[in-house]
């Protein structure tokens, strides 16, 4: 009888320890899920899981799965006596097609000052995706940006079209970007297609804008121009076309 009680006590102790380990593991998972997407301008807000990590998850083809990475930056400018903000974003390792972005400006304490929603029409097979958000709220105290991603699977993962940049300049009133777009597909690209441009300074996104080119029949090459009322002081511009 004593031996039975001793064995039972051992199992009870092991059960308590096991529950404790599960609780600790649960806390670690919660911390990982709660990883902040808040970033200072130009800082990566989510980290790629290491492919060397034996515990990292894998896709069906056996390759390590990756979490989306977002790099952001912003430009503040004066308009109508207020401080407005343009946010430039570069996203990589997206999957699942088009994406919905919830973009928030935060103050130094991490409190939201303004929030807007943007979309990207293609995950570009995990490659570089450009996005931007412009805020016309008076937000002089913005200190960082938070981006939350949602798979907007109700939207078609649209096929991108070719975009070339000819020039960019700020003439004292407008930031202007000029270039050409080409329809290399077999169907018309209509007026709902968008060209997104993001300005970079020192390799980091600092602002963005967009334009809608004219309808392009297959094989057509058209000129386009994007303008906005701020100076991002960008030393590089990248643009992408999406249906």
What does this structure look like?
The protein has 243 residues and is mostly beta strands. The protein folds into 2 domains: 1-34; 38-48 and 58-243, no CATH class. Helices cover 13% and strands 43% of the residues. The chain has one helix at 2-33, and strands at 38-39, 69-79, 82-92, 99-106, 112-120, 129-135, 144-151, 162-170, 175-182, 194-201, 204-211, 221-228, 236-242. The strands form 4 sheets. It has a 4-stranded antiparallel β-sheet with strand order 1-7-4-5, with no helix packed on it. Strands 2-3-6 form a 3-stranded antiparallel β-sheet, with no helix packed on it. It has a 3-stranded antiparallel β-sheet with strand order 8-9-12, with no helix packed on it. A hairpin with a 2-residue loop joins strand 10 and strand 11 (204-211).
Apparent shape = globular
Q: How many E strands?
A: 13
Q: What portion of the residues fall into strands of 2 or more residues?
A: 35-45%
Report the C-alpha radius of gyration, rounded: 24 Å
Mean pLDDT: 78
Task: Provide the number of structural domains.
Answer: 2
Give the N-terminus to C-terminus distance in angstroms: 77 Å
Q: Going across the major beta sheet, what is the strand order?
A: 1-7-4-5
Number of helices: 1
H/E element sequence = HEEEEEEEEEEEEE
Catalogue the unreliable spans: 1-64
The level of helicity is 10-25%
Give the topology:
Blueprint: H1 2-33, E1 38-39, E2 69-79, E3 82-92, E4 99-106, E5 112-120, E6 129-135, E7 144-151, E8 162-170, E9 175-182, E10 194-201, E11 204-211, E12 221-228, E13 236-242
Antiparallel strand pairs: 1-7, 2-3, 3-6, 4-5, 4-7, 8-9, 9-12, 10-11, 10-13
């Amino acid at each position: 009888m004593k031996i039975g009680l001793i064995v039972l006590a051992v199992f009870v102790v092991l059960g308590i320890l096991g529950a404790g380990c599960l609780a600790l593991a649960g806390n670690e998972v919660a911390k990982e899920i709660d990883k902040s997407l808040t970033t200072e301008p130009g800082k990566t807000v989510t980290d790629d899981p290491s492919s060397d990590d034996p515990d990292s998850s894998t896709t069906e083809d056996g390759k390590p799965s990756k979490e989306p990475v977002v790099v952001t930056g912003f430009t503040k400018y004066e308009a109508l006596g207020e401080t407005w903000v343009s946010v430039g974003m570069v996203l990589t390792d997206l999957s699942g097609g088009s994406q919905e972005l919830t973009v928030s400006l935060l103050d130094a304490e991490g409190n939201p000052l303004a929030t807007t929603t943007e979309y990207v029409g293609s995950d570009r097979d995990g490659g570089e995706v450009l996005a931007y958000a412009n805020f016309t709220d008076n937000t002089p105290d913005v200190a960082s940006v938070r981006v939350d991603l949602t798979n907007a699977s109700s939207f078609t993962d649209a096929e991108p079209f070719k975009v070339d940049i000819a020039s960019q300049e700020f003439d004292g009133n407008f930031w202007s970007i000029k270039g050409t777009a080409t329809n290399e597909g077999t169907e018309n690209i209509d007026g709902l297609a968008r060209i997104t441009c993001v300005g970079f300074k020192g390799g980091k996104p600092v602002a963005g804008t967009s334009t809608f080119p004219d309808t392009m029949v297959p094989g057509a090459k058209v000129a386009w121009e994007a303008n906005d009322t701020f100076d991002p002081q960008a030393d590089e511009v990248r643009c992408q076309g999406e249906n």
